[in-house]
Amino acid sequence: SQQGEEDPQALSIQEGENATMNCSYKTSINNLQWYRQNSGRGLVHLILIRSNEREKHSGRLRVTLDTSKKSSSLLITASRAADTASYFCATDAYGGADGLTFGKGTHLIIQP
Amino acid sequence: GAGVSQSPSNKVTEKGKDVELRCDPISGHTALYWYRQSLGQGLEFLIYFQGNSAPDKSGLPSDRFSAERTGGSVSTLTIQRTQQEDSAVYLCASSPGDRADNTQYFGPGTRLTVL
């Protein structure tokens, strides 16, 4: 079954509010990454968190990782219209295949 | 520097025809990946190249799909006898090849439509 499932599938909030997306996965991992995709084309890497890290910040992004629950969250603070995009978590499975395993993504809409 | 480039950006073909998709990775990146993304879905891993090692083909959906990487740089993904279910965006990504940090840098993708 799918490794790296995001929740919710879609999220619509007002500009300035915070947006939280969650990701669950099934196997042990080396790291977990979050990517953003605009308009169904190339993905842009946002942040990588290693399996021995619990929290990481980058600008308005905050990522947490709970390996005991096999889950991660991505928080975008003070959202902007330009944050409208699809967000994917991707796991690098420990001892697994070499490609990342992506979830189906959360489509985030920021209402101006 | 230049990012990952892919060509063509769009390809429309008839069922049964062969297509070739090209990927130019970031210079110096030893790892190269192909993914497929169907409408509204996540990314499906297809194949992985690391340097001159034999590729990991475990994600290729059928024997109609093949890929090669010449000289450890440019890669082509070939789909023979295309079917309508092959319609998708095909994404290529490259990575420096450091197993401890496999951040992937994606190209803009090729949108393939099989009529």
Characterise the protein shown here.
The complex is a heterodimer of chains A (112) and B (115). Chain A is 0% helix and 57% strand. Chain A is mainly beta and 112 residues long. In chain A, the strands form two sheets. In chain A, strands 2, 4, 5, 9, 10 and 11 form a six-stranded mixed β-sheet that branches. A five-stranded antiparallel β-sheet of chain A has the order 1-3-8-7-6, with no helix packed on it. In chain B, strands 2, 4, 5, 8, 9 and 10 form a six-stranded mixed β-sheet that branches. In chain B, strands 1-3-7-6 form a four-stranded antiparallel β-sheet, with no helix packed on it. Helix content of chain B is 0%, strand content 46%. In chain B, a hairpin with a 5-residue loop joins strand 4 (31-37) and strand 5. Chain B has strands spanning 5-7, 10-13, 19-24, 31-37, 43-50, 65-69, 75-79, 88-95, 105-106, 110-114.
Distance between the termini of chain B: 37 Å
Can you tell me the residue ranges of chain A where pLDDT is under 50 for at least 5 consecutive residues?
A: none
| CA-based gyration radius of chain B | 13 Å
Q: What are the low-pLDDT stretches of chain B, counting only 5+ consecutive residues below 50?
A: none
Rg of chain A? 13 Å
**Main β-sheet of chain A, in a few words?**
6 strands, mixed
Distance between the termini of chain A: 37 Å
Please tell me what the overall shape of chain A is. globular
Q: For the report, how would you describe the main beta sheet of chain B?
A: 6 strands, mixed
Please state the structural category of chain B.
mainly beta
Order of helices and strands of chain A: EEEEEEEEEEE
Shape of chain B: globular
Percent of residues in beta strands of chain A: over 45%
- β-strand percent of chain B reads over 45%
Q: Please give the count of helices of chain B.
A: 0
Query: Main interface pair?
Result: A-B, 25 and 31 residues
Q: Kindly state the percentage of residues in helix of chain A.
A: under 10%
The tally of strands of chain A reads 11
